[in-house]
Amino acid sequence: MSSRNTQPVEDRTPEGTSRPLPAKKDTRKHGTSQRFTSRSVSTASKRIQKELAAITLDPPPNCSAGPKGDDIYEWYATILGPPGSVYEKGVFFLDIHFPPDYPFKPPKVTFRTRIYHCNINSKGVICIDILKDGWSPALTMSKVLLSIRSLLSDCNPDDPLVGSIATEYLQNKEQHDKTAREWTNRYAT
């Protein structure tokens, strides 16, 4: 017979104390600890529903977005490459995850389509201030998509996520543009 204590955690008392250990509960929700009340989740859900209605009724130019299925916190989005840019004629797919404390925390937005861009890495992570420190609850998913689309027209090599692409953009723009067009034709058309 094993000498392990088989009593439930909440029934055991640590040596030298008279109080039992508290029971541990799995409090994870949407990948984070559930320090958020049902009220904050309800706030997030209501806000996301409101944004879904707005983006469905009046989508940003050359963008679309909506839930992947029944989970209102998981969306997909599509952005068309801006005319006159190296991403022209490209169709770029993105994943959007809303945290339970949205809109007080930014959504997580990543590219699913490969793209040659100094502010977007190979995992699809986007380096743009409004998805980090520049986030404000006044921002909406429509504004986020417009900002990302604008980043496709005007990259920010001064704050790169991929330094080598930023260097190429600054030192050999012709080669950069050629590679970006090739990637757009290969992965986004």
Automatic annotation (TrEMBL):
<keyword id="KW-0547">Nucleotide-binding</keyword>
<dbReference type="GO" id="GO:0005524">
    <property type="term" value="F:ATP binding"/>
</dbReference>
<feature type="domain" description="UBC core">
    <location>
        <begin position="43"/>
        <end position="189"/>
    </location>
</feature>
<dbReference type="InterPro" id="IPR016135">
    <property type="entry name" value="UBQ-conjugating_enzyme/RWD"/>
</dbReference>
<keyword id="KW-0808">Transferase</keyword>
<dbReference type="InterPro" id="IPR000608">
    <property type="entry name" value="UBC"/>
</dbReference>
<dbReference type="Pfam" id="PF00179">
    <property type="entry name" value="UQ_con"/>
</dbReference>
<keyword id="KW-0833">Ubl conjugation pathway</keyword>
<dbReference type="InterPro" id="IPR023313">
    <property type="entry name" value="UBQ-conjugating_AS"/>
</dbReference>
<protein>
    <recommendedName>
        <fullName>E2 ubiquitin-conjugating enzyme</fullName>
        <ecNumber>2.3.2.23</ecNumber>
    </recommendedName>
</protein>
<dbReference type="GO" id="GO:0061631">
    <property type="term" value="F:ubiquitin conjugating enzyme activity"/>
</dbReference>
<keyword id="KW-0067">ATP-binding</keyword>
<feature type="region of interest" description="Disordered">
    <location>
        <begin position="1"/>
        <end position="44"/>
    </location>
</feature>
<comment type="similarity">
    <text>Belongs to the ubiquitin-conjugating enzyme family.</text>
</comment>
<feature type="compositionally biased region" description="Polar residues">
    <location>
        <begin position="33"/>
        <end position="44"/>
    </location>
</feature>
<feature type="active site" description="Glycyl thioester intermediate">
    <location>
        <position position="127"/>
    </location>
</feature>
